[in-house]
């Protein structure tokens, strides 16, 4: 069973990775809603999990926008 991604794990992603994760989650939510409308959805809980994951991604992006959190350093950067 797939669960949502913890916010701490999302904070380790770069901005591009966050945008990609958001796009994937929104696409999954669309597909789940379509399945629900056609009566093919088996796991209703997955809708809620995906919505929460989208909210977590938006929260991390907003934290960075406000300067409350910073994006991780580049892969080759030395501190």
How do the strands and helices of this protein lay out in sequence?
Blueprint: H1 7-11, H2 15-37, H3 45-66
| Helix proportion range | 55-70%
What gyration radius follows from the Cα positions, in whole Å?
15 Å
Tell me the series of helices and strands, N- to C-terminal: HHH
Mean pLDDT: 86
Task: Characterize the main sheet.
Answer: none
Helix-strand category: mainly alpha
User: Could you name the ranges where pLDDT drops below 50 across 5 or more consecutive residues?
Assistant: none
* Number of E-type strands: 0
Query: What distance lies between the first and last C-alpha atoms, to the nearest angstrom?
Result: 38 Å
Number of helices: 3
Strand content: under 5%
Instruction: List the quaternary state of the chains.
Output: single chain
The dominant shape is: elongated
